[in-house]
Amino acid sequence: MLADVGLLGQPNAGKSTLITAVSNARPKIADYPFTTLHPNLGVVRVAPEKSFVVADIPGLIEGAAEGAGLGHQFLRHLQRTRLLLHVVDLAPFDPAVDPVAEAKAIVNELKKYDQELHDKPRWLVLNKLDMVPEDERAKRVKDFVKRYKWKGPVFEISALTREGCQPLIHAIYDHVATAHKVHVEVDPRFPDGKPASEADEADAADAKA
Ligand SMILES: Nc1nc2c(ncn2[C@@H]2O[C@H](COP(=O)(O)OP(=O)(O)O)[C@@H](O)[C@H]2O)c(=O)[nH]1
Ligand SMILES: [Mg+2]
């Protein structure tokens, strides 16, 4: 695994702003999308003993499955995460840009590249809600979800003002902590459970003797 969570979204969706808002990572905001091959990793601390790792994968664009914009490297990184957060700019500066079409284009790349990556748990994170007048937000979100035909989890945030970011990181932590547990329980190398500590290993040795 590279990280618990991978960020996915069009350039300018607000991935770097989000990872900066919730973690210790300090990527460049609004950087040229293809200046780095390497994902930015950030630790998100939910409570003193509770944290998870998030990876900001820059530069995922249409054509990535065919290798555009170093697409293969980025998609490969996403395979090594447990949960994908699909960040969508719900208030694009250019009114000709349709957020639904943008979102579909990215998901299409996942599907073309690897069905398993497409089928990985993926949550929708609708960003830049601060740019939408408060009395229009509910309608804008509802309309997006309907046209995008989305049935999974949806979070409404502003990475800039951090509105909605706390409920998101708590939900992620709960998901990731559960996924870890399930993973350990079904680890085929240890059908009787993985030795968790030296004490357990000593118990196992005692049992053999
Ligand atoms: N108003 C507003 N602007 C945002 C928000 N999130 C990101 N931005 C701006 O959108 C631009 C692109 O953000 P960035 O995080 O670099 O996007 P990335 O390409 O997905 O990493 C920057 O100018 C950010 O300041 C948000 O929630 N609200
Ligand atoms: Mg970025």
Amount of beta strand: 15-25%
**Second CATH tier, the architecture:** 3-Layer(aba) Sandwich
Question: From the structure provided, what is the oligomeric state, counting identical versus distinct chains?
Answer: single chain
What structural category characterises the helix and strand content? Answer: alpha/beta
Write down the CATH topology: Rossmann fold
Whole-angstrom Rg: 19 Å
Mean of all residue-level pLDDT scores:
84
CATH class: Alpha Beta
Outline type: globular
Number of helices: 7
Task: Output the CATH homologous superfamily.
Answer: P-loop containing nucleotide triphosphate hydrolases
Q: How is the largest sheet built, in terms of strand order?
A: 2-3-1-4-5-6
Q: Which small compounds were modeled alongside the protein?
A: guanosine-5'-diphosphate, magnesium ion
Question: Uncertain spans, ≥5 residues at pLDDT below 50?
Answer: none
Counting DSSP E segments of at least 2 residues, the number of strands comes to 6
Q: Strand count, sense and closure of the main sheet?
A: 6 strands, mixed
Helicity, in percent? 40-55%
